[in-house]
Design goal:
Layout lengths: L20 H14 L4 E4 L4 H12 L3 E7 L6 E6 L6 E3 L5 E2 L4 H8 L7 E6 L2 E4 H6 L4 E7 L1
Antiparallel strand pairs: 1-3, 2-3, 4-8, 5-8, 6-7, 6-8
Length: about 140
């Protein structure tokens, strides 16, 4: 015998909840790079994602990107160059003092010669080298190499 349950408490369609737009965006970039894609579309867009991408573009890890305003959350079309091996989010956003940056670099990046940590500081979102030059710490957003 089969027992079917039609309870009003159980939803018929389960919706996925987007926890972190930045984590989702970076995962999409890595997956597209692994598949050898030339470009990737990311949605939703946010100011933090745009600043993170600007930091990646400044160091040549991605090509140009275009923000598409669809009157909703927005989309970003990114040209890929094939240089991103890995990028990710650090959650929770730990506080990093100036003298702790070196330890985080050692823990997260494969080499001191390449790769960047992205920090959010009181002077804006920047990579760890710029934060060192400006003599400021902040909270860690993520990394890429």
């Amino acid at each position: 015998r089969m027992i079917t349950c039609h309870s009003p408490l159980l939803p018929q369609s389960v919706k996925m909840v987007l926890m972190s737009a930045l984590a989702n965006a970076l995962r999409n970039i890595v997956n597209a790079e692994k598949r050898g894609k030339r470009q990737v579309i990311i949605r939703p867009s946010s100011k933090v994602i745009v600043k993170f991408l600007e930091t990646m573009m400044k160091h040549g890890y991605i090509g140009e990107f275009e923000i598409v305003d669809d009157r909703r959350a927005g989309k970003i079309v990114i040209e890929l160059t094939g240089r991103v091996n890995k990028c990710g989010v650090i959650s929770p956003r730990f506080d990093i003092a100036l003298d702790e940056i070196e330890q985080w670099v050692t823990d997260l990046l494969p080499s001191r010669l390449f790769g960047y940590l992205v920090l959010t500081t009181d002077q804006g979102i920047m990579d760890h080298e710029e934060a060192r030059r400006k003599h400021t710490g902040g909270k860690i957003l993520g990394f890429f190499y």
